[in-house]
Write a structure and sequence with these properties.
With 374 residues, this protein is an alpha/beta fold. Helices cover 24% and strands 29% of the residues. The strands form four sheets. Strands 12-15-14-13-16-17 form a six-stranded antiparallel barrel. Its EC number is 2.8.1.13.
Length: 374
């Protein structure tokens, strides 16, 4: 197969590309330039997409003996991932930019362009498995290394793009083995730190980034009874479940910590309260995508639900429906939704988060949280 290997400049993508070469595929490496104002160097393990990363990707391609290109996807990245990030926070929701990057950049812009150029598949260094049934149906499964599993952020891709995706690291038992393999292959990135935080907020100051882009918008912080207990500089900078940085003017009557319960963008108000008020038992999700075999519409089924990239799955019942959820951010009414009943509840779920449904290790589907109820 002709395979387009996404080379980020890190160790995972380099080893994944090497394994694709070993498998006999005709591999071409490509680095996605996602920012037009990239710093020359990363700060330790913060961020990615720097000029340093592009150079590391080129050197890895040279060692592997494969062609290498840089594709400028910065405008697409700004218009989709960054714009969505700002719009979601401004609307009082909490987005996951890695999910949107996989949706709009790695498995839309990159894959679609690759297919148009005659490539059969895209290869990435994500930790997830693809299982192919006798009838050709492909399933997305958790990685063997549960600690590195990335099926949560990949679930948004859906079955069609999964059919053109390769994840050679899915069966690797540990990241240490990947680093050892990279060193054995002579790849200089073998000891390079993993990137973390939001790639376009390389200093890790998400609130500062939002304030620079959205401006100062002072407003009240109130308790669950509506009494003003503090002030904020912009409701958009807060998320459900947040405890730190509230700067409350007076303590709670019982002296216990308070958490963000709700962000009311219409009134520019942040509502805080006790920890027990964060636990919810019902979730609504929109923009749902389903993997084959998809569950029957309207039929309840047992599953586990994960609402954070490295969160613990919890037991639940769910069903798919065709109508958009109330207050949905969907662009049209054709998107499916999902309803979820949590067996034991979850704490601090914010609209905008990605919820992923599993049956064992298999991804059933994914949706964006629109509402939660206690």
């Amino acid at each position: 197969m002709r395979v387009l290997a996404a080379l980020s400049g890190g160790v995972d993508s380099a080893v994944a590309a090497a394994r694709a070469v070993d498998a006999g595929h005709d591999v071409v490496g490509v680095h996605m330039a996602l920012s037009r104002n990239r710093d020359q160097f990363r700060t330790g393990s913060r961020g990615c997409c720097s000029i340093e990363d592009a150079g590391d990707a080129r050197r890895a391609a040279d060692v592997l003996g494969i062609p290498y290109y840089v594709w400028d996807l910065s405008e697409r990245f700004e218009q989709t991932v960054v714009a969505d990030f700002l719009a979601e926070y401004e609307a009082g929701r909490t987005p996951n930019p890695c999910v949107r990057c996989n949706e709009h950049i790695k498995f839309e812009a990159l894959l679609d362009k690759g297919v148009a150029l005659g490539f059969d598949a895209v290869c990435t260094g994500h930790y997830a498995r693809v299982e192919i049934a006798e009838d050709g149906t492909r399933s997305l499964l958790r990685a063997r290394d549960v600690a590195k599993d990335q099926s949560y952020v990949l679930a948004v891709m859906g079955p069609d793009r999964l059919a053109r995706s390769m994840f050679p690291l899915g069966d690797v038992p540990s990241k240490e083995q990947v680093r050892a393999e990279a060193a054995d292959r002579g790849l200089a990135v073998s000891a390079k730190p993993d990137s973390y935080d939001i790639c376009f907020v390389a200093d890790g100051d998400t609130q500062g980034f939002l304030r620079d882009r959205l401006g100062s918008r002072p407003g009240p912080v109130v308790d669950a009874e509506g009494a003003v207990v503090g002030e904020h500089d912009g409701a958009y900078a807060y998320t459900v479940g947040q405890r730190k940085g509230l700067a409350l003017g007076r303590p709670a009557p019982d002296g216990r910590p308070r958490y963000v319960l709700e962000v009311q963008t219409s009134s520019n108000t942040v509502v805080v309260g006790a920890a027990e008020l964060l636990t919810v038992r019902e979730l609504d999700g929109d923009r749902a995508v389903w993997f084959d075999p998809a569950p029957e519409p309207s039929a309840w089924f047992g599953c586990s639900v994960q609402v954070r990239a490295h969160g613990t799955p919890v037991e639940a019942r769910a069903r798919r429906t065709a109508a958009p959820a109330p207050g949905s951010a969907s662009e049209d009414g054709a998107h499916e939704r999902v309803e979820v009943h949590l067996e034991d509840g979850l704490r601090g779920i914010a609209p905008g988060q990605s919820l992923v449904l599993f049956e064992g290790d298999r991804v059933v589907g994914q949706a964006t949280v629109t509402a939660s109820r206690r």
